[in-house]
Design the sequence.
């Protein structure tokens, strides 16, 4: 089984460890993983900011790069959602791409969804001593139906206890360029999320999207919470939560 | 209503700084969001009904020409007088003519958002006619000289304490804080107006083509009195409000009240078919229905058409994380929240509401709860595209996006830039490993500490691993 890993631009730049966690999980489950070296961005920033032409250029690039894979897996609900649910509309002006596109959208999976529903993963390499709470990222949840999958996987991690926060499916306030254009409103929305996280007393908040991750971690730290870890579920599942520092 | 949507950012900042507003809006989540979540569980096929409602609304929108004429025929046959208005000012003029013709001095109103669009109250008052809002929320904001901040809970931005102060000041009675007592006081003040008004003005939740019926959904009983007590009743409805049959109305109502307030059914459903008929105990002598375009056909012919399916339940704003924190006033016109972010630019011009389609995280909670499945985030994205096409976005944003796309479509350049950025970011993060001021992201890092990059890109590390 040839699996293409779509690393995503934020993982590449900010937290490569998440990419390697995904890699370890897929390889240890027996997948042949390919990582196209020319990959960059799925086109979300342009698409959500009205720059359709830029988004189309990047979507066409993704389409080419992953044409030879049986599956395309990404550790991000919003990038997976972008490809699976928005590329068809974004590329609708190009009839010549439709066959290829339908192939891609059928093959693309968010990481947790893939591990559970394609690989049927029963065991994970990671260990975690402590309590976590899980934040459902909007795109993964509402575009791809990722809700129980990461929780199911995390429940297999020895030592880990999940404690749900109030409204785990409420938006964290990131919204891509929204957080830059309306930083004050965004921060207020994030404050509610931080309060809900704190309410659980968990050692870590775990999620599956880099944007939400940077946003929540950024706000927690600014509010003076230096202790609550903010982790991608792949880091925990792969046993790669240690900061190489 | 005057459009102030261009001041969204400033008004949102003011709203965030207002602790009373924050307190008032916390009711929204507690009451509306939880209420809806519970009440949709009463139906085991809520999702199927949503799909059917979407189709029924689409069918009606596709056959507006036929259905509106059918409505006019049937309403006229029952003695109602149907008027057509292309613009807001025409609506106001028509109402004034009807009022003058019937020597009307006092009007009572049940809630009409279309009346808010056209600024009907001010227009009639300027013409010397007394206008009384009778919906409790509308009454509060009329007394406070404000505009509604929510389409079904117009005074949601006020706490009970604030209303207690307002009533005390206006009514000159002992200050009450119990909501039940305050409501009784408002009823007592309003009762004489109901009994002395010459005309009642209502909106319409739906027009029923097969019977020529106009119907409203209310909870307080004021709507029933507005449509039956005065000798003249004028209903104002947008062209998109028509549905083919009573059966259609009845099943869509199952979604409307649950989505709006979490009620299985509202306290009142008032169906008005024609004026008082021979043998009727009550009802108006004249019943006028004004069917209004005011920008709707333009939307119908555009790629925002799906927004016309809206049945005005308010669920999108109740569930919107932005609305929950800033309330309705920053949106600057009649319709706030996600539906307002689409309808406001569509009706008053995109250039007058540039911030609105961007002031959303695209979390799609609105799309998920919308009873008629309006894809609100997609429509906002379409408006964002139109802003770029029309050059309405600030140049640094446009240039930034182009630069990003330029680099991201050139993998070698991109690899070099990110390699550099990862190192600079790591260095800027220092021992704390956080960046306090993100270049180019000031608005973001003003409120947050950006976690610093690990120092090398995945691309580099992966290439090293393979070597």
Sequence:
């Amino acid at each position: 089984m040839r699996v293409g890993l779509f690393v995503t631009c934020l993982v590449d730049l900010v937290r490569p460890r998440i990419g390697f966690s995904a890699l370890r999980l897929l390889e240890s489950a027996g997948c042949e993983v390919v990582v196209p070296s020319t990959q960059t961005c799925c086109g979300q920033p342009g698409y959500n900011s009205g720059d359709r032409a830029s988004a189309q250029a990047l979507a066409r690039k993704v389409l080419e790069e992953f044409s030879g894979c049986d599956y395309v897996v990404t550790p991000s609900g919003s990038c997976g959602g972008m490809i699976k649910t928005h590329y068809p509309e974004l590329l609708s002006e190009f009839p010549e791409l439709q066959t290829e596109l339908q192939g891609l959208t059928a093959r693309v999976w968010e990481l947790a969804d893939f591990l559970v529903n394609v690989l049927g993963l029963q065991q994970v390499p990671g260990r975690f001593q402590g309590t976590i709470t899980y934040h459902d990222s909007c795109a993964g949840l509402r575009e791809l139906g990722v809700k129980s999958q990461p929780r199911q996987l995390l429940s297999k991690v020895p030592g880990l206890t999940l404690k749900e926060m109030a409204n785990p499916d409420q938006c964290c306030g990131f919204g891509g360029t929204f957080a830059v254009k309306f930083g004050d409103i965004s921060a207020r929305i994030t404050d509610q999320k931080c309060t809900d996280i704190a309410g659980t007393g968990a050692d870590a908040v775990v999620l599956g999207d880099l944007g939400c991750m940077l946003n929540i971690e950024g706000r927690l730290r600014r509010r003076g919470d230096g202790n609550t870890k903010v982790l991608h579920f792949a880091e925990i599942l792969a046993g790669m939560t240690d900061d190489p520092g | 209503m005057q459009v102030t949507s261009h001041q969204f950012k400033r008004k949102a900042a003011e709203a965030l700084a207002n602790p009373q507003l924050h307190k008032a809006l916390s009711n929204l989540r507690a009451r509306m969001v939880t209420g809806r979540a519970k009440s949709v569980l009463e139906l085991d096929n809520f999702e199927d009904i949503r799909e059917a409602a979407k189709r029924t609304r689409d069918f009606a929108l596709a056959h507006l020409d036929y259905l509106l004429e059918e409505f006019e025929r049937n309403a006229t046959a029952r003695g109602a007088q149907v008027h057509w208005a292309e613009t807001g000012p025409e609506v106001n003029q028509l109402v004034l003519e009807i009022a003058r013709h019937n020597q009307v001095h006092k009007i009572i109103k049940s809630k009409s958002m279309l009346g808010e669009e056209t600024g009907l109250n001010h227009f009639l008052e300027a013409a010397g006619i007394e206008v009384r809002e009778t919906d409790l929320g509308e009454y509060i904001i009329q007394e406070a000289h404000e505009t509604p901040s929510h389409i079904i809970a117009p005074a949601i931005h006020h706490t009970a304490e604030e209303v207690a102060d307002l009533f005390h000041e206006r009514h000159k009675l002992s200050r009450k804080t119990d909501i039940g007592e305050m409501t009784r006081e408002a009823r007592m003040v309003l009762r004489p107006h109901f009994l002395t008004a010459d005309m009642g003005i209502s909106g319409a939740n739906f027009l029923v083509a097969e019977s020529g019926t106009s119907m409203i959904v209310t909870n307080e009983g004021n709507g029933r009195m507005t449509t039956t007590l005065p000798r003249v009743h004028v209903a104002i409805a947008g062209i998109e409000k028509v549905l083919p049959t009573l059966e259609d109305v009845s099943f869509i109502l199952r979604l409307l009240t649950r989505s709006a307030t979490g009620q299985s059914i509202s306290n009142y459903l008032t169906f008005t078919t024609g004026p008082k008929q021979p043998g009727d105990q009550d009802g108006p002598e004249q019943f006028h229905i004004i069917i209004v375009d005011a920008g709707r056909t333009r939307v119908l012919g555009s790629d925002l058409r799906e927004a016309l399916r809206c049945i005005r339940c308010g669920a999108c704003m109740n569930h919107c994380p932005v609305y929950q924190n800033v309330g309705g006033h920053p949106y600057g016109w009649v319709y706030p929240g996600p539906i307002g972010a689409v309808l406001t630019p569509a009706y008053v011009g995109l250039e007058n509401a540039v911030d609105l389609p961007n002031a959303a995280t695209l979390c799609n909670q609105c799309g998920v709860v919308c009873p008629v499945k309006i894809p609100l985030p997609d429509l906002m994205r379409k408006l964002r595209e139109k802003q770029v096409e029309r050059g309405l976005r600030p140049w640094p944003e446009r240039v930034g996006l182009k630069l990003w796309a330029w680099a991201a479509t050139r993998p070698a350049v991109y690899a070099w830039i990110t390699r550099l950025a990862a190192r600079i970011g790591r260095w800027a993060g220092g021992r704390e490993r956080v960046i306090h001021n993100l270049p180019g992201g000031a608005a973001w890092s003003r409120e947050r500490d950006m976690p610093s990059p690990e120092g090398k890109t995945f691309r580099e590390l992966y290439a090293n691993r393979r070597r």
